[in-house]
Amino acid sequence: MSLDLELDELSSWPLIPQLVVVGIVFVMAALVSGWLSVKPSLEDLDYYKQQETQLKQELQVVARKAAMLPVMSAHLSDLSDHYDRLLRQLPAQQELASLLADINEQGLNNHLTFTRINWGKRQPQKFLLKLPLDIELTGSYDDIGRYAQAIAELPRIVLIENAEWQRVSLESSTLHFRVNATTYQFIAEAEGEK
């Protein structure tokens, strides 16, 4: 017995071949609809896997930063203490006269004779005022060296720059010493004291 079945006569087929064709169509439809519904989920899964990897990397960076927080906090505290210590070494406006007196006194203590000592014009910088001081004096080489050391040991910052010296005369060991000294003021403090 041979079955010659035409697809356009499906309704006249015997029951079993009809069920087989319907089953095949159903399975194919289920596979296609399943694929179409699963494919976006697979794309979403890939996206979320990438997100997970990225978030893990970000978490590692944050965890390293969190682990370094105590060290960085201690370092910040040290820097803040150092900044405060340096800030305390800058003279306040009311201390400028006594600073000038200290610079003069150090010269006198080291047997030097002042020809000139006066403030130059204030020069604003980023957050500091540069306060130049022009000094001219005479004395021996050793006395001038001790004077420079005494200036460096003052509790306020005084920088000695552009030092020039020459003998007063060819026969004399006395030197004429000309120097530009500089100290600084914190701008906010200088403006607050005006």
TrEMBL record:
Give the signal peptide as a residue range, or say none if absent.
Answer: none
InterPro entries recorded: PilO, Transl_elong_EF1B/ribsomal_bS6
Keyword terms: Membrane, Transmembrane, Transmembrane helix
Give the GO terms filed under biological process for this record: type IV pilus assembly; type IV pilus-dependent motility
Q: Does the keyword Coiled coil apply?
A: no
Residue ranges spanning the membrane: these are 15-38
Q: What Pfam family does this protein match (any one)? A: PilO
Mind telling me what this protein is named? Answer: Type 4a pilus biogenesis protein PilO
Q: What is the scientific name of the source organism?
A: Vibrio chaetopteri
The organism's lineage is:
Bacteria, Pseudomonadati, Pseudomonadota, Gammaproteobacteria, Vibrionales
